[in-house]
Amino acid sequence: MAVEINRILNEARAIGCSDLHFTYGIHPIVRLNGALRKMTRYGEMDEEQILDICNQMTNENQMASIRAHKDTDFSFQTTAGYRHRVNVYFQRGKTAIAIRLLRNDIPTLDDLHLPPVLADFAMRPRGLVLVTGPTGSGKSTTLAGMIDYINVHRSAHVITIEDPIEYVHTHKLCMVNQREVGDDVPDFASALRAALREDPDVILVGEMRDFETITAAVTAAETGHLVLSTLHTTSAADTINRIIDVYPEHQQGQIRTQLANNLVGVISQTLLPRMDGKGREACMEILAVTDACSAMIRDDKVHLLLSAIQSGKQYGMMCLDQELARYVKRGIVSEKDALEKAQSKSEFYRFLNGTAATT
Predict the structure, then answer these.
(1) CA end-to-end span of the chain
(2) Domain harbouring 93, CATH code
(3) Which pLDDT value is given to residue 359?
(4) What is the reported pLDDT for 356?
(5) What stretches in the chain show pLDDT beneath 70?
(6) Are residues 157 and 270 in the same domain?
(7) pTM here?
(8) Do residues 164 and 231 both lie within one domain?
């Protein structure tokens, strides 16, 4: 049975799925509220069917890449006008497809129930803002909300560098130029260097993947631009250490100083299924870099940042374990799901059962 990609994507979207997967030998799989489910009305997939689905979504160059057994990323728009992020990869010699279903509308920070400090970060004239978390934790959506906030509240030139473009921004108060790796630019690092010659005020870098991209992003923040990007780390301290560890030992003092001077904030987020079944809720650790936090970064005392976060509520900071406990107390998420995401089980239970305020 041939699978018509537009039809199955519309079905997945109608029931609120976030992802759709095709893998050899099993039914199509969707992710709904974080859990995987089989689409049993479709049969088990064979290689011919999966390649036919690839063919429905790709252009000639993309299909040639797939036939050459190269992992291939691209965006796909259905006939209904909905956009998707697609990765074609290979396992046990067979083709597999992972498709992320994207929202067509740009979610606002209010729509996403995100804290006001994110709007403060978005309006900074310069510096580096990082949104971190595991794959599928909503980083791109949070960044889209922040870019939209800038677009509505500030006159600026925004350049985004993405792989692929996920949310399409219209020009509001800002001029927004979106560049896709592979089509418009060869890679993140060279696109970032080029962006500095394109008179930007704000630069969004889809991901800081390597030394060259990290260096270019820090330089862009240092030279008077607001730079927003992502990393696959799970806390503010991990994020800063990851960046520092990318550098050779003799340059680590320099990058500490650069981060101390230019880092605006780190937003580490995770998604948890809501107890009412209405999708998933983002839970965050937020570091707003104060003078005291800058000194900790500069002096190689990153391990002290967690206590600064716990005592920094007046600056908009949030501690993940404290937020998880608050969500459990309010009946938004289950204790079991929250515990799985907690950074420290003992801290989580201290906030849940102890005297620490969580409301």
Answers:
(1) 53
(2) 3.30.450.90
(3) 44
(4) 52
(5) 1, 355-359
(6) yes
(7) 0.89
(8) yes
3-state secondary structure of 40: coil
Cis link prior to 115 (omega < 30° from 0)?
Answer: no
Copy the structure tokens of residue 219. 């330089």
Placement of tokens 């007046």 in the chain: 314
Tell me how far apart the alpha carbons of residues 291 and 261 are, in angstroms, rounded to a whole number.
9
Structural domains counted in the chain: 2
Residues of the domain holding 278: 117-318
Is-contact 85 75, C-beta < 8 A? yes
| Confidence at residue 1, expressed as pLDDT on a 0 to 100 scale | 67
Which tokens belong to 204? 């969004």
Are 94 and 124 contained in the same domain?
Answer: no
Q: Given this model, what pLDDT does residue 355 score?
A: 52
Q: How many beta carbons lie within 10 A of that of residue 40, not counting itself?
A: 9
Task: Name the token pair of 148.
Answer: 């939209």
Token pair 């101390």 is at which residue? 260
Does any domain span residue 345?
no
- Please give the backbone phi and psi of residue 264, each rounded to the nearest 5 degrees, phi first: -90, -45
Tokens 């592979």 -> residue: 182
Computed over its alpha carbons, how large is the radius of gyration of the chain? Answer: 21
Q: Is the backbone of residue 176 left (phi > 0), alpha (psi -120 to 50) or beta?
A: beta
Q: Fill in the DSSP letter of residue 169.
A: P
User: Do residue 163 and residue 241 come from a single domain?
Assistant: yes
Residue 12 vs residues 38, 49, 100, 111: alpha-carbon distances, Å: 11, 18, 11, 22
Q: What is the pLDDT of residue 277?
A: 86
Is the CB of residue 214 less than 8 Å from the CB of residue 258?
no
List of residues 6+ apart from 14 with CB closer than 8 A: none
Please name the residue that has the structure tokens 């729509």.
Answer: 111
H/E segment holding residue 100: strand 94-101
